[in-house]
Amino acid sequence: MKHLYFAYGSNLSPTQMAMRCTVNPSRSAHPVAIACLTRWRWLICEVGYANVIPPAELCVGKQRTAAGAGKDDDGVFGVLYEMDAADEEILDGYEGVDTCSAGSGSGSGAPREVLRPREQGDGCYNKWFVRAKVVTWLDGGV
Known about the structure:
The protein has 142 residues and is an alpha+beta fold. The protein has 3 helices and 6 strands, in the order βααββββαβ. It has helices at 14-20, 25-28, 85-95, and strands at 5-7, 31-38, 41-44, 50-53, 75-81, 133-137.
């Protein structure tokens, strides 16, 4: 099974992905499918960053009180990229992924300058590994 990167917000742009994913941009910045995170909810936090809220059964902390989090008719559409592992690590730095938190892999943590406010409170972002529903494969599928 291939692990694909679900992109939303500004990472929908292959041009931006090519500028960020410098190890193998021809692979990592090439969208392979349009997909949906069923029952997730998309929002813009107070300082203007896109974020997603998981379904109610996956919510933690302040996410539990988010208006309408995880309704059956919710869904976040995005694109899937077949990400090179080294490019994913670079992208994690841009996204402020907390590489020291449980389940996020190993590392020394996100640099302080990439920490950013979010709807759920300040701090590093954790990486989620979830199933996305493919709406349509691009370029003949993977």
